[in-house]
Amino acid sequence: MTVLASALDPAGADHTAHREAMLAKLAELEGEHAKALAGGGEKYVQRHRKRGKLLVRERIEMLLDPDTPFLELSPLAGWGSDYPVGASIVTGIGVISGVECLISANDPTVRGGASNPWTLKKALRAHEIARANRLPLVSLVESGGADLPSQKEIFIPGGAMFRDLTRLSASGIPTIAVVFGNSTAGGAYIPGMSDHVIMVKERSKVFLGGPPLVKMATGEESDDESLGGAEMHARTSGLADYFATDEPDALRQARRVVARLNWRKAQSDPGPAEPPKYDTEELLGIVPSDLKVPFDPREVIARIVDGSDFDEFKPLYGHSLATGWAALHGYPVGVLANAQGVLFSEESQKAAQFIQLANQRDIPLLFLHNTTGYMVGRDYEQGGIIKHGAMMINAVSNSRVPHLSVLIGASYGAGHYGMCGRAYDPRFLFAWPSAKSAVMGPQQLAGVMSIVARQSAAAKGQPYDEEADAALRAMVEQQIESESLPLFLSGRLYDDGVIDPRDTRTVLGLCLSALHTAPVEGARGGFGVFRM
């Protein structure tokens, strides 16, 4: 039998303590998500409503098929910065007229939907997801353009927004713009470069320069409607393909456009999906609050894969990395999950072989992170840990099947790379509230800095200030700890969202469904030179 047996005691003291710690982290996470949901605050929400307009998430809900999920991406973008949480834009994956689409929607209650540096990063990440997974892109536009005080950080990289739209179209991925209000200056190129454009009567305003700028530049007197109104663009300029009477009509027409795309998934429908044998509620109590305490990742696997059925690959070799085959919502997956934190030579070689096998079979890979990195020390260096770690990273780098990553515990050092961290282009990467990621753990990093400083003082024949050393170590530990936390990392878009562990199976299922819109094909060779 390949159904995983669980040794977890949901009533035990450890599980209860871990669960309570996770629930506290989830409560903090919920508070931060609420800031994104609040948009620009009650004052600007009410002003928006008085204009007879729908809020951004109301537009998305009306656009989606009834009772279908919406996987919101990067909801904490901008966290810890000078800009509002959420970055004045909502992005995510949802089903429109039976078609999975990437939706990118400005929130006009936040500074009129103006784009700040984090808005740009979040939008570009959404475009990347649309391209990699061949998802039609639907832009719900209402934005005053760049947030001018931050233009120096937006103008140059901002051109990638329009580049992406044209490249998506060139690769046959449909792009649709629904314009609800302002789409001015550079923002006018969003409808200008989309395949299909819908504008709303007496609401849409699309022009390169508004009346004040036209007056300054040319001396011409003009008004919004004649310069860039929906009716003008529908009747005269031809920029608008569809003319809507109001917002619900615009969203109805957008649904019809998607319905007529003749868009099909590249892959066949998944097989039947059996729920896990164990309660997903138990995921809350698996990961200790102290990540130095080991836990068995098979307990996580047993609660997210179909039927808790896991065919483990090389179970007696490389014990600190569990690898094996499973299905998730009917889709086949290969799973790599860190068991005891440290990656040794055996684990690295095992991972490289497993990744090659997944590519031979065209099976997506799921990485569950809990690693402190590759093992260090004289014996391990002499045993070839560098070349074996490089072999694993080589395999991850050149693998062509889709990768999904979930940070459930630690994800430090080069182990983060070997387990397909952000720099290795996973299709999607999420984190649990328990996760931490950095060059190394806070205590180790502070300790290394202390040792280097102590050796430098000794080399110069100078006395070492122990009191200053203790203060420096405490400061460094505090800094690295704060910069390792999921909120900090998610705010910088190093993941696609921090998720409730109980939602892991659902989130991964939505991602697997989305990525199967594109062909799933592995590399046949082409892994570069594996050093032996």
Automatic annotation (TrEMBL):
Pfam families: Carboxyl_trans. Residues 272-522 form the CoA carboxyltransferase C-terminal domain. InterPro entries: AcCoA_carboxyl_beta (IPR034733), ClpP/crotonase-like_dom_sf (IPR029045), COA_CT_C (IPR011763), COA_CT_N (IPR011762), MCCB/AccD1-like (IPR045190). Residues 22-273 form the CoA carboxyltransferase N-terminal domain. It comes from the Bacteria. Coiled coil: none annotated. This is Acyl-CoA carboxylase subunit beta. It comes from Streptomyces endocoffeicus. The lineage of its organism: Bacteria, Bacillati, Actinomycetota, Actinomycetes, Kitasatosporales.
